[in-house]
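Input record, target 12 of the design panel.
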């Protein structure tokens, strides 16, 4: 039984992969014209389909909306009960049906689009079908074989249709010059939005929360600062020009104690010179990258555009970044 199941699973994956790869040779000027039609659309993109095609239509509408193209899914069965009103003269309709056979409900959408002179893009395997004939642009999708052992259930064909729909959306995204920053603006609530939108200044500790000491500060006072600030376990060392010149961490103190068996001395005796810093305007994601690359827990934050570019304006700890869902 194990071998039988694995063999069938491999066959399904191979057929569906071949179905997608077969689309490459089917790309033509009609595909280019369809992308251009979507790019010129001044309204929204209405995507419609029923059954398995309906699920793909919903996915395409969602993908378009999340990549900068206003789009909605229109269910053919609901269209004749008032939802046709969602289609306006400046819209474009994408109708999906692998066979190209359009139901009575789909025909009403196509007729309504025709009356309003709304262009229709068809995703179908049959350009001579009723759907193909009604469309101004036909994106061809053909597979040699379904992955279903009975060659009946839409499997390779639906996978190929989904892939072609993604190709349309991604080409449109590229043509519009849609960037990661634009994507983040449309996804502010998730970890992706946090990663692409959050800057160091948004998560850093400021003011009295920054643990700072002078070169001549005694170790006892340094330990007090390291313990009683919001960000514990480190202190920045400042020179007379109010510039950051070093950092003292728990590790620095432990290593000094191991070497000399004494904790007497001043901040300048314990500090590590030239600590790593980051600008307040940098993306928080970069701060996390620096911390992980150099295996450190915190960074002092500078405002390099100010008149005092070496004066700390904040401090950010790795836990601040994780709490902000930067990863």
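The sequence produced for target 12 reads:
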């Amino acid at each position: 039984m194990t071998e039988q199941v694995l063999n069938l699973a491999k066959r399904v994956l191979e057929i569906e992969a071949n179905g997608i790869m077969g689309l490459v040779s089917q790309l033509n000027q009609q595909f280019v014209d369809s992308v251009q039609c979507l790019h010129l659309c001044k309204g929204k993109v209405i995507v419609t389909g029923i059954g398995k095609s309906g699920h793909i239509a919903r996915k395409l509408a969602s993908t378009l909306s999340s990549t900068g193209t206003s789009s909605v899914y229109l269910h053919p069965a609901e269209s004749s009960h008032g939802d046709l009103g969602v289609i306006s003269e400046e819209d474009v309709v994408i109708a999906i049906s692998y066979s190209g056979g359009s139901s009575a409900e789909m025909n009403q959408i196509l007729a309504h689009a025709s009356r309003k002179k709304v262009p229709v893009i068809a995703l179908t395997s049959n350009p001579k079908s009723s759907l193909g004939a009604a469309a101004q642009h036909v994106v061809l999708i053909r597979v040699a074989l379904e992955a279903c052992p009975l060659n009946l259930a839409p499997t390779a064909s639906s996978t190929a249709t989904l892939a072609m729909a993604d190709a349309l959306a991604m080409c449109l995204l590229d043509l519009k010059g849609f960037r990661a920053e634009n994507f983040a603006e449309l996804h502010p609530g998730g970890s992706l939005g946090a990663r692409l939108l959050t800057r160091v200044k948004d998560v850093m500790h400021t003011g009295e929360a920054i643990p700072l000491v002078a070169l001549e500060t005694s170790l006892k006072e340094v330990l007090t600062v390291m313990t009683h600030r919001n960000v514990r376990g480190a202190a920045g060392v400042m020179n007379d020009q109010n510039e950051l010149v070093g950092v003292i961490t728990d590790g620095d103190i432990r290593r000094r104690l191991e070497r000399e068996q004494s904790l007497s001395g001043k901040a300048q005796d314990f500090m590590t010179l030239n600590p790593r810093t980051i600008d307040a305007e940098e993306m928080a994601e970069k701060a996390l990258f620096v911390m992980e690359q150099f295996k450190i827990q915190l960074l002092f934050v500078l405002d390099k555009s100010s008149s005092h570019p070496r004066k700390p304006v904040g401090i950010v700890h790795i836990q601040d970044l994780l709490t902000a869902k930067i990863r």
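The chain is about 45% helix and 15% strand.
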